[in-house]
Design brief:
Elements lengths: L4 H79 L11 H5 L10 H8 L8 H24 L6 H11 E12 L10 E10 L2 H6 L1 H43 L1
Antiparallel strand pairs: 1-2
């Protein structure tokens, strides 16, 4: 108390407290900044991974779509032959392609699953998050049901039944070459398959059951092509939206 030193001590103590508080606040701010940076970098990484996944989805879907278009073209040619009076089939009909095959789709979902397993607010743009979720919850699930799990959309077994009746296998193979408009989007594929020839044209053309199966197969194949094209459009839109968001996050 002597010499009025208490005032100086109080000022010193208050100054120390202020310095401690400022240090704590600065430390909290630095920590928050570091956490924000980490969260931002994680958001960028996961969006880039999702973008890469949907690009791989696009490649696989376009491969399937190109083959389905080949099947449809040959189904239509063969169906026209079945309905008209022409007794000699056109050489442009690929019977193996009329028969087709059951396809399988495999989607890249690890990055989306990683997103779902983390904070829902990880993607700062809620509209973008909804578009990503919509793509997986509707389009991906629907395509899996269409190709992998729903026998209604598979006409292969029905056509095989009639192929056994009206065709025989010959010792000759045809090539199925599938590629997209640009080599950047899809790799080229070539398949070898044994060819068929018609046993009896008159019996074939008289088979009304086969005509029904073909007409239904053409209808279902057309529906498949439409849905494939829709999901590819959604992939393009989603890829563009993710790219725009990444530009904002990185700048």
């Amino acid at each position: 108390m002597e010499g009025n030193k208490i005032g100086a001590y109080l000022k010193y103590a208050v100054g120390e407290i202020i310095l401690v508080v400022m240090g704590i606040l600065i430390a909290i701010s630095v920590n928050n900044w570091n956490e924000s940076r980490k969260k931002l970098q994680f958001e960028i990484t996961i969006l880039e991974n999702i973008q890469q996944d949907i690009i791989f989805d696009k490649i696989d879907l376009k491969l399937n779509l190109e083959y389905i278009k080949v099947v449809l073209k040959n189904e239509q040619r063969f169906f026209n032959f079945m309905l008209n009076d022409q007794m000699e089939p056109s050489d442009s009909i690929g019977y193996a392609d009329v028969l087709g095959l059951d396809l399988f789709v495999a989607f890249q979902k690890s990055s989306f699953n990683n997103l779902q397993n983390n904070d829902i607010g990880l993607v700062s743009s809620n509209p973008l998050y909804k578009k990503i979720a919509r793509y997986h919850d509707f389009y991906v699930r629907s395509m899996i049901m269409l190709e992998n799990k729903n026998n209604f959309f598979s006409t292969y077994d029905n056509k095989v039944f009639y192929f056994k009746k009206h065709f025989k296998v010959i010792d000759q193979k045809s090539s199925i070459e599938i590629s997209s408009e640009t080599s950047e989007d899809i790799w080229e594929q070539e398949f070898k398959r044994y060819d068929f020839i018609i046993r009896d044209v008159n019996l074939l053309k008289a088979d009304e059951g086969f005509k029904i199966i073909l007409s239904e197969s053409i209808f279902i194949t057309t529906l498949k092509i439409d849905f494939y094209e829709q999901i590819l459009i959604k992939i393009e839109e989603l890829n563009s939206d993710i790219e725009d968001e990444l530009i904002l996050l990185k700048n």
